[in-house]
Amino acid sequence: MKVRVDELPDVGRVIHFHKAEAWLASLTENDREITLAKPVEVDLELIPEADSIKLKGHLRGALQLVCSRCLQEFVLDLDETIDLTLLRHPSADAPYEIDLRPEDLDTEFFDGVTIDVDLIVAEQIFLALPQRPLCKTDCAGICSGCGADLNRETCRCEKIDRISAFDALRSVKIEH
Ligand SMILES: [Zn+2]
Ligand SMILES: [Zn+2]
């Protein structure tokens, strides 16, 4: 969805829309594969001010992720506040710029004439993405010795050690 800045009423405009699961995949590059577990619901208010446009709202949805410890798939609920300001810029070529930290800077979604609301929502989802996804904060992960999923199974390492020790003992006896 694109919104023309010059068509915004003075009191602002509230938009509500949703994006289907497949939508985000069409925007992401191969190195940032993100799967939506359900459609994203967006409520957004666009308020023109003297020297800026404020974007305030909410997005709700869920991401399908893989836990970085136990490698199991899990669903992470998204409930993100959107609070952005597009600042008026002195240059005629780019009359507005987005007020974000430099590392977040992404002006693709605003050319000074139209605001690409879809890309803003996508950017907010990327920012909400955890660096190291965890299915739960105390995920026990996978045992590096026996490969057991320690959230659901007990580690078999000790048992394996005991069996091999017994085997070693028995082989010693046989040799006698
Ligand atoms: Zn996990
Ligand atoms: Zn183990």
- Roughly what fraction of the amino acids lie in strands? 35-45%
Provide mean pLDDT, rounded. Answer: 81
The span between the termini is 82 Å
Radius of gyration: 26 Å
Taking pLDDT < 50 over at least 5 consecutive residues as the criterion, the unreliable ranges are 101-107
Biggest β-sheet, characterized?
A: 5 strands, antiparallel
Trace the largest sheet across and list its strands: 2-3-4-5-6
How many beta-strand segments?
7
One letter per element, helices H and strands E, the order comes to EEHEEEEEHH
Task: Name the overall outline.
Answer: rod-shaped
**If helices are DSSP runs of H or I spanning 4 or more residues, what is the number of helices?**
3
Précis, in short:
The chain is α+β, with helices and mostly antiparallel strands and 176 residues long. It is built from three helices and seven strands. The strands form two sheets. It has a five-stranded antiparallel sheet with strand order 2-3-4-5-6. The protein has a two-stranded antiparallel ribbon with strand order 1-7.
Descriptive report:
The protein has 2 domains: 2-128, no CATH class; 140-176. The chain is built from 3 helices and 7 strands. The strands form 2 sheets. Strands 2-3-4-5-6 form a 5-stranded antiparallel β-sheet. A two-stranded antiparallel ribbon has the order 1-7. It is 22% helix and 35% strand. The protein is rod-shaped. The chain has 176 residues and is of the alpha+beta class.
